[in-house]
Automatic annotation (TrEMBL):
InterPro entries registered for this protein in UniProt: PTCD2
Name of the protein described by the UniProt record: Pentatricopeptide repeat-containing protein 2
GO BP terms in the entry: mitochondrion organization; regulation of mRNA processing
Signal peptide interval: none
Lineage of source species: Eukaryota, Metazoa, Ecdysozoa, Arthropoda, Hexapoda
Organism superkingdom: Eukaryota
Amino acid sequence: MSHTLRLTLRTLCYPLKTDLLKLAPVSSPQTCRYLYAKATIGIDAFREQQKQTKSQMLNIEAKFRERMKGFAAEDSSSMIFTEDLKNMVHIAETDEDFDLVVKMAKKFNGQNKQLRFGNFVFGPVVMRMLHVFNKPDLALECFKSPELEGLFDQLITYQILLDLLYENDKYQEMLEVFDLVKGKQLQGAKYPRNAVVLVMAGCYKLNSKEGTEYALNLWNELMAAGHFPMRRATTFCAGLALNQGKPEVALEILGAVKNPNYVTIRNLKVRALSEIGRVEDAIVLLKSVIATDQPGEVTQTFNKEVMECVKAAVDKLENPDLTLEYNKVEKLFEKEGHISDLTLDSHLCSEIQQPPIMNNRQINKFSRFRDNTRNTGDSGYNRPQRRPGLKEMV
């Protein structure tokens, strides 16, 4: 990490004083609720399994529930087998059912420490059940339960839980979960890439001093460990720095991105450059899309609010030549469709459609665990056909 970034992070409590911040207001944090598409975390596949299981148990479902209540009772000597818990998870639909699933899971987890019947991993499946029925508090309670220790120790399970908390605006709880995740260092990964994306998104949504400190401390840890965050984690962190009046920090963070051509990267850089008064550099970046524009390709764009930020910075300088140059660029952009009406916030929070490709060797070593385990019978993850977020390259 550069010396400049270390210095800027130390001055976090002293926000940059600039009138330009008033001209680039923070977008509503409710612009987009969903971050990961349901298919990417196995929700769609879980729903299909639900339908199949309920169809198979149509005539015995009520009796099965009653039997499981007896098996799960504390004074019962009956064991909970893999198929019992698997079926109960997929037919559960009421609070009473969820309570029964948790009781069964606790008993199964306790007996499974000594007797290993099969290798079906329940963490992701139980967490998907709670995600489908939107039970964030119960999911968090289960994750922290000592009686369920080890049941939820899978990278995908962390992702499902954090995604559920994100969708329910439980951003502070996301930070608590991530601290626990770091402590586990599952499969040698202290900073699971998808979990990092989600916790950075949580910090971005918090948009507070505390959330910013957490995000920047995490960024420092990642850099010190030689971990290169995914682009979405980087843009959330940089966007948060901008919203908290730290454009110089945002620029340092964006400097870690290898491919600067993504729409979010370009927009964040232009806004940051404008806010620190480097308007000429911002205009050069604007003009770069004209030089690289090719017939037949998708037009590269800048957000309207970012263009307004540049214009405000230009007007403040009262430089006729610079004003003329910007006006020419703006006119050309309007003519050729280089200005997008989408907000920067909507770009940052746009839904991730495909599972991320993990470039970290340490993660790839355990790629067979990407869908939680071998032979789980759970097809929640499909192999990605392209890089996630490629649609953002406009």
